[in-house]
Every structure is written in C-alpha cells, then in structure tokens.
C-alpha cells in the first residue's frame, strides 16, 4: 500500500510539473512555508494590517480575560444607580436598569465572537462538504445547488429573522440561523473550485491512476481550495457579527438579559442625549471589530491572490 501511494503521488506530481512547464494549465496553489512565515507576509509592508490585527487581538483578549479583569456583574441590577455616569465604581456608567455598562461590553464581546466563530466553523465544514459533493457528482449538483441558490436568493437578515421566529430565541438557535444563512456561500465557493480543479490534468491523472475521489479531494483539492475558503471565512466572520448584532438590536437575537452589543445599542438609542455612555461603547466596539476583520480579509485576499499568481506563472 505504501508503494502504491508513493507511485501515485509521484505520478500526479510529475503530471502537474509537466503541465506547468509546458504552460498547459495552472498548478494548484499550495501554501509555502509555515504559519509564522505566512503571517509575516500578511503583515509585512502593511501598517493597516498591523493595526487591524491589533484590534482583533485586543477584542479576543477582552473576550477571554475581560470578565476576570472588569469588576461587576453584567446581569446585576441596581435601580438606585440607574443611568449613572462613568465613575471609579462603574468605568463606563450604568444603563437604565443600573447594570454596569463595562461589564456588559466585555461579556458581549465574548458572546459575539463565540457565536461568529462557531458559525464560521460550522459553515466551512458543512458548506465545503456540500459544495464538494455537488462538484464531484453531477446528479447531486442538480439538487444541492438548486437549494443553495434558493437560499442565497433570500436576504440573509430576513432569512435569519424568519428562522429565529420559527425556532425561538437562544444561543443555539442563533448559530443554526446564521449557519443556514452562510452555508450556501461556502457551498458555492467549494462547488466552483472542485468543478474547476476536476478539469485540470493533475486531478484527471489522479483519478485515472485509481485514486478514490475522497483521496483526491482531501490530498489535492482541499489544499488548493484553502485560499478561497479562508477569504470566505473572513467575510462570513465579519458579517456574522453584524447579523447577530442586528438580530439582537431588533429583539430577535440573544435573549435578554444576556449581554449583547446589538441589544445594548438598541437600548442606548433611547438615551442618546441623556446617557450617551449606554450607546457609544457598544457601537464603537462593534464598528472597530467588524471593520478590522473586514480589512484583514481584504489583505488576506490580496496576499493569497499574489501567491497564487506567483505559483501559476
């Protein structure tokens, strides 16, 4: 079995190298170097990428360590201290129920990042599996991709609201709703990648030499698809954070009194002039995190496209 694998790998490598040398097709993109080298490439020569990375790391640290560093219970109410301005006891003031705004901000960061991160992982796994299966099997593509197209035709926020209305409020139902919204994006990307890679000589050679479709997908296609999937993941991460905040802003997301940036912004808009500290911390946090993730996604796309072009030349 080991000899067969070596022979198959050498044969496929030889076909790919010969194809690239003859100019008959592009080699699949495989990342070169370790994670540290790749991060240096992303950050090198881009002060904006460094700033955005610092913002993302800051909010991740806040989400993980903030509850241990910021005093106060985000759920504890104290009517006698309602709408108190920032002070030594309450760094960012209190809301209309006397709850500590700083504590709610910190715990809200954890909720937003947790929901968005889990959603990205679920969508990447399920969406890639659906798109890859549809790309390999023409019969499945007629069914799976029509369902994907139908889901993509519905505005994401509207679909999420409908699902939340049907499933009810809760952290798990938010993950399910966001996953249904964003799985089609990964499915469409992986479907197109697999269909394109199947037409290249290295994929046809591997199948002709007896490799199973599962082996071809995991050993050859998935590494070549990683660039597109990573860029899509950065986009879904930022939009999932916005969608979760939008659902909470509309009252259809995280159930109260669970801390949520969207819910805090919704409550703070009524006290914009009398107690602005209720609105601005959550609004600034949400804006900075989403903007940083989006700009990092753009930088990641530019770097990966450049590396792919260098490989294909």
Automatic annotation (TrEMBL):
* Any Gene Ontology biological process: transmembrane transport
Q: What is the lineage of its organism?
A: Bacteria, Bacillati, Actinomycetota, Actinomycetes, Jiangellales
Q: State the annotated membrane topology for this chain.
A: Multi-pass membrane protein
Report domain ABC transmembrane type-1 positions: 109-297
Q: Where does this protein reside within or beyond the cell?
A: Cell membrane
Species source reads: Jiangella mangrovi
User: What is the similarity comment for this entry?
Assistant: Belongs to the binding-protein-dependent transport system permease family.
Q: What is this protein called?
A: Peptide/nickel transport system permease protein
Q: Which domain of life is it from?
A: Bacteria
Q: Which UniProt keywords apply?
A: Cell membrane, Membrane, Transmembrane, Transmembrane helix, Transport
Q: Does the keyword Transmembrane helix apply?
A: yes
Q: Which PANTHER family match?
A: D,D-DIPEPTIDE TRANSPORT SYSTEM PERMEASE PROTEIN DDPC-RELATED (PTHR43386:SF1), OLIGOPEPTIDE TRANSPORT SYSTEM PERMEASE PROTEIN APPC (PTHR43386)
Known PROSITE patterns for this protein? ABC_TM1
Transmembrane annotation, as ranges: 48-70, 113-136, 143-165, 171-191, 235-254, 274-297
Asked whether the keyword Transmembrane is assigned, the reply is yes
Output the SUPFAM superfamilies linked to this UniProt entry.
MetI-like
Output a single Gene Ontology CC term carried by this record: plasma membrane
């Amino acid at each position: 079995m080991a000899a067969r694998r070596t022979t198959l790998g050498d044969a496929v490598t030889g076909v790919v190298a010969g194809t690239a040398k003859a100019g008959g097709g592009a080699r699949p993109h495989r990342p070169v170097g370790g994670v540290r080298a790749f991060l240096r490439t992303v950050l090198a020569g881009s002060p904006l990428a460094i700033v955005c990375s610092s913002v993302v790391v800051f909010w991740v640290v806040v989400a993980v360590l903030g509850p241990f560093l910021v005093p106060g219970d985000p759920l504890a109410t104290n009517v006698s201290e309602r709408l108190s301005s920032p002070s030594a006891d309450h760094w960012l003031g209190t809301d209309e129920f006397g709850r500590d705004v700083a504590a709610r901000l910190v715990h809200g960061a954890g909720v937003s990042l947790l929901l968005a991160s889990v959603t990205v992982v679920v969508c990447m796994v399920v969406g890639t599996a659906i798109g890859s299966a549809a790309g390999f099997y023409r019969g499945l593509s007629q069914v799976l991709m029509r369902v994907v197209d139908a889901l993509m035709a519905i505005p994401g926020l509207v679909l999420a609201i409908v699902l939340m209305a049907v499933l009810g409020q809760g952290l798990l139902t938010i993950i399910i709703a966001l996953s249904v919204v964003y799985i089609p994006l990964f499915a469409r990307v992986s479907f197109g990648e697999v269909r394109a890679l199947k037409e290249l000589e290295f994929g046809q050679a591997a199948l002709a030499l007896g490799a199973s479709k599962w082996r071809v997908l995991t050993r050859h296609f998935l590494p070549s698809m990683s660039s597109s999937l990573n860029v899509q993941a950065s986009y879904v991460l930022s939009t999932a954070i916005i969608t979760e905040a939008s659902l909470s802003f509309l009252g259809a997301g995280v159930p109260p009194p669970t801390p949520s940036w969207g819910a805090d912004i919704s409550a703070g808009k009524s006290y914009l002039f009398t107690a602005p500290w209720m609105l601005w911390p959550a609004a600034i946090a949400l804006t900075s995190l989403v903007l940083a993730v989006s700009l990092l996604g753009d930088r990641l796309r530019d770097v990966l496209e450049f590396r792919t072009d260098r490989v294909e030349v």
